UniProtKB/TrEMBL annotation:
Residues 93-187 form the Sulfotransferase domain. This is Sulfotransferase domain-containing protein. PANTHER family: SULFOTRANSFERASE SULT. GO terms for molecular function: sulfotransferase activity. It comes from Mytilus coruscus. Transmembrane segments: none annotated. Belongs to the sulfotransferase 1 family. InterPro entries: P-loop_NTPase (IPR027417), Sulfotransferase_dom (IPR000863). Keywords: Transferase. The keyword Cytoplasm does not apply.
Length: 188
């Protein structure tokens, strides 16, 4: 099987002329559309200034959001294609999986598990997103040093089937739904 292209959005090509989002600044104003090209020009990927807190008005906040969405969509694989590949991904006996809904403490858990696996209190140098199952093709994980610690916001039955068969360590993080909603609200 040929290697899958890394980081391609599969639903369709996105061009700079495509409308990314439509918004109205006030109820009386006309609806304005924001094109992908405008979002890319507002905040270039990798820019240090990607925080909504630095925006001076609602229009800038929308443009910032659009640029983040645009950047994410252009690099993430299509979930419809990646899910079957994840389920049949080969795993090792010493692999660890952290399954959690967003804003339930995934990052804290990921850091703690990495510290326990290394036997050191040093923070992990590799980004958590680089080991998130749904963000990558399984081929990208095969050269990763072992033991590998993965994380995912997918459901438990979406992780690789071999993880259950080989009795890999699986940590499911749960949090009070009220606290999760509050955390998600302040994250937005």
């Amino acid at each position: 099987m040929a290697a899958q292209p890394v980081g391609r959005y599969k639903i369709g090509p996105i061009t700079e002329k495509d409308t990314l989002i439509e918004y109205a600044i006030t109820p009386r104003s006309t609806v304005k559309s924001l094109q992908v090209g405008d979002a890319i020009q507002h905040l270039a990927p990798g820019s240090e200034d990607n925080s909504f807190n630095t925006c001076r008005n609602f229009s800038e906040a929308i443009a910032s959001l659009a640029s983040v969405v645009c950047t994410a969509l252009s690099f993430l694989p299509d979930i419809r294609e990646i899910l079957p590949l994840i389920q049949y991904m080969p795993v090792y006996d010493d692999d660890v999986f952290i399954i959690a809904h967003a804003k339930t403490g995934t990052h804290w858990t990921w850091e703690i598990v990495n510290m326990l696996m290394k036997g050191s209190t040093d923070y992990e140098k590799m980004s958590k997103a680089r080991r998130q199952l749904e963000f990558h093709y399984p081929d990208e994980f095969k050269d990763m040093p072992r033991p590998r610690v993965f994380n995912s916001h997918l459901l438990l039955h979406h992780i690789p089937k071999q993880a259950i068969e080989k009795k890999c360590k699986v940590t499911v993080v749960q949090r009070n739904p009220k606290d999760t909603i509050v955390s998600l609200f302040y994250h937005m």
